[in-house]
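We modelled the chain as a single entity of 107 amino acids. Its sequence is:
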Amino acid sequence: MAIYVDPLVNWGWILRGRNVPNSHMFTDTLDLEELHQFALAIGMKRSWFQDSPRAPHYDLTPGRRSKAVSIGAIELDRREAAQIWRKRRQDLAAAGTIVLPAQQQLL
């Protein structure tokens, strides 16, 4: 299993009155436990987990992203991140966990 971070992007986060860029930390596997353990290691709370079935992730500030990379997270560009999330959704669909939009048309 690998832990990934995508690039910092300014999505309009305002923290302490300042605009702060953020990124996502995620994994390529269906089991999320190692992601949660990694998040704990960089000081994240489990309650901060974004439990989206299509793209489960933690949102990271620049400092937490740097910490994640320093302990082994792999940096990806947006295209590479999208490919991993797309593959993960396909794996979930194959396992019967989610229905992809193309499959919904067949129902």
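As a brief sanity check on the tokenised model: The chain has one domain: 3-106. Residues 78-94 form the longest helix (17 residues).
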